[in-house]
Amino acid sequence: MKTNYPDLIRNASVYDVAIKTPLDFAPLISERVVCQIWFKREDLQPVFSYKIRGAYNLMSSLSEEAIRSGVVAASAGNHAQGVALSAKKLGVKATIVMPKTTPDIKVEAVIRLGAHVILHGNSYDDASGYAKKYALEKSISYIPPYDHPLIIAGQGTVGLEILDQSENTPDAIFVPVGGGGLISGVAAYVKSIAPHIKIIGVEPVEAASMTAALFSGERVILDKIGIFADGAAVRQVGEENFRLAQEYVDEMLTVSIDEMCAAVKDIFEETRSIAEPAGALALAGAKQYIAKHPRTLSSCVAILSGANVNFDRLRHIAELAELGEQREILIGATLPEAAGSFREFCYALGPRLITEFNYRMSNKSTAVVFAGVKVRNRDKERGILMANLSNKGYQPVDMTDDEVAKMHLRFMVGGPSGVPVKDERLLRFEFPERAGALLHFLSHLGNKWNISLFHYRNHGAAYGRVLMGIQVPETDLADFESMLFSLGFPYENETMNPAYRLFLN
Predict the structure, then answer these.
(1) What distances in angstroms separate CA 128 from CA 42, 104, 432, one per listed residue?
(2) Are 328 and 374 contacting, i.e. CB atoms less than 8 angstroms apart?
(3) H helical segments located in 166-301
């Protein structure tokens, strides 16, 4: 029998713990993009995320026997807090399985709500598998994060509230997508009342599982996912969520890390609140859509889904926000090693603010510089600026979209090695943030190959970013690649990267 989602949503039991969050007009961003944008403020929920709605709706339906037995869930953050608060309200004993890579701030938040935490594995998939096995062994209820009709109905109350609160019906609702619980619930309700409203899902480009599923016509499992927007980092969407998305979702968009960071900044400037990266997905998608389809929407809603962000990630978000707004260009250039060269270079850049300038003497006659330049419109100004620098003989290299330059080079001091580094291979890794990760890597590496360069960065995420130079002769490449495969850490080969060759090689 087909589930009647509109009725299930209207009768959802969520308001014992959740609040009806406001629908706030965003005047600053609305004026800039020439479209009225409204924020649905799910970041204001008691656990700073919409996840409390679905978790409580399902848990409040449990039998007395199930309540006495307790529940278990797997989560790296927001769902865990939703289950923990629901359990506290209902008097249920809750066990939450979280990956070992989960930041302490999220683990501590769950413990404060009274749940028992088990740290297991290094990913959500590891934790989820363990939680399901734990539920069977203990004969207790497993609370899934998105693939259940009552979870979907709870999240669907967000759509119900949007329609109730809108003075004029919006042309579109932009919804962040991870496993699909929120968009399937919102779409099922909104399309039953106002089918002309576009439902547009937004995913990180590095974890676009719903986009891939809808394109393929079936659920797919992504080979790998990025975890910058950890609240939406899902390898495979839910079965019921996918079915509803196929029926009701009009379009899917993917956004970059830079675009998410720019949206976090926009939200802060509008509300003085700080969204987590996944919480800013919808606004990032709305901005992208409006830019590609100007004046096609007169008004839209962006769901701000969460604000569980670690304080130490804010620096990274701020660094990338200007790039996401397309207001900064990163340039590598070669200058004469002579007095006044910097001044002449600044003249060549024109009346623009220099955001960053890194310099290293290359030899007696030339110097290589890494510069950040603030612009009003990157697409319009980039070509003009690069052509002007070329005409003046600076041999510029555009590094604005270069991950090595953005994530590592701009923070590294020094320059090329004073001695030739033979057979150096440059690799960019994601290391899980756990004790022993580096030692694990080094033990696999053994004594066969020498590390010639190393730079590490972390911003409170589950993974640290590592740039590493390793000396590997051509004859060893097959063995080296086999070692990397057995290691299992995500990596990219950057040996031919122009930023590396200009500044470090």
Answers:
(1) 25, 19, 18
(2) yes
(3) 181-193, 209-216, 239-248, 257-271, 281-292
DSSP state of 418: S
Q: 431 with 482, same domain? A: yes
Residue 410: DSSP 8-state: G
Question: Based on the domain organization, do 377 and 496 belong to the same domain?
Answer: no
Average of per-residue pLDDT across 159-174: 96
Task: Output the domain CATH number for residue 360.
Answer: 3.30.70.260
Number of domains observed in the structure of the chain? 4
**Do residues 490 and 259 touch, judged by C-beta distance below 8 A?**
no
Mean pLDDT of 107-134: 90
The whole-angstrom separation of Cα 32 and Cα 46 is 31
Which residues belong to the active site? Answer: 51, 305
The string of pLDDT tens digits covering residues 121-134 is: 877 778 899 999 99
Q: Is the pLDDT of residue 340 over 80?
A: no
**DSSP symbol at 325:** T
Could you list the residue range(s) of the whole structural domain that residue 156 is in?
5-49+149-322
| Residue 181 backbone dihedrals phi, psi, to 5 degrees | -65, -45
Report the alpha-carbon distance of residue 301 to residue 362 in Å, rounded. 52
Q: Which amino acid is at 6?
A: P
Does 418 score more than 70 pLDDT? no
**Number of helices and strands in the chain (H, E):** 20, 18
Q: Supply angle C-alpha 206, 210, 215, rounded to 5.
A: 100
Same domain, yes or no: 311 and 437: no
pLDDT in tens, 180-234: 999 999 999 999 999 999 999 999 999 999 999 999 999 999 988 887 888 888 8
User: Which whole number is the average pLDDT over 370-386?
Assistant: 83
Shared domain check, 302 and 368: no
Structure tokens at 140: 């207790």
Q: Which amino acid is at 301?
A: V
The answer to whether residues 231 and 277 touch, using CB atoms and an 8 Å cutoff, is yes
Residues 128 and 168 in one domain: no
pTM: 0.76
Q: What is the pLDDT of residue 438?
A: 65
